[in-house]
Amino acid sequence: MEPDQYEPPASDVSRGIAFEGKFYSIAQVGAAAFFGGPPVAGHLLAANLTASGENGAGTRTYIMGWIAFLGLVGLQVWIPEDIPGVAINALVALAAIVYAEANQEAMIRAAADSGATRRSNFAVVGWVAVYLFLMIALFGFLGEIVIQGLRAAAG
After folding, report:
1. Does 37 map to a domain?
2. pLDDT digits (tens, 9 = 90+) for 83-122
3. Under a CB-based contact definition with an 8 Å cutoff, are residues 101 and 33 in contact?
4. Whole-angstrom Cα distance, residue 25 to residue 102?
5. Which DSSP string corresponds to 100-112?
6. Which domain does 95 fall in, by range?
7. List of residues 6+ apart from 55 with CB closer than 8 A
8. pTM score > 0.85 for this model?
9. How many CA atoms, within 13 angstroms, populate the side-chain half-sphere of residue 23?
10. How many structural domains does the chain have?
11. Residue 9 has what DSSP assignment?
12. Which is nearest to 112 in space by CA: 32, 51, 37?
């Protein structure tokens, strides 16, 4: 009896995703987005893509995180003051989770099925701390430049 030509071949081939290390889970990406904003979420999502061998997509995702951050900073002008900051953080985390589920859930499941391990939560906390320090330093430096300019203009 001939095999059915419309039947997919029986094979033991994996999805072709070979992780070169550990990966971040979707929950870790969401927590990082909540506490550190879009740049941290972009960094973790890019690390997942880089670990799977998709370096170009990882770089684009990292840049997209910073663009989202700059867009969020620009939107701060129009967000009313009576809206609590935690609501904005929750929306950023929700957006990061939805993006991660839509674009990386299958890859993360395949990595977990193939034996790759999840990165430590301490790594997530470390990246959040690094990015918060960078943002504080950046905005402190820019704020100082603005203050110096205002003083020079006034005096």
Report:
1. yes
2. 888 999 999 999 999 999 999 999 988 888 888 888 999 9
3. no
4. 13
5. HHHHHHHHHHHHH
6. 26-154
7. 49
8. no
9. 30
10. 1
11. P
12. 51
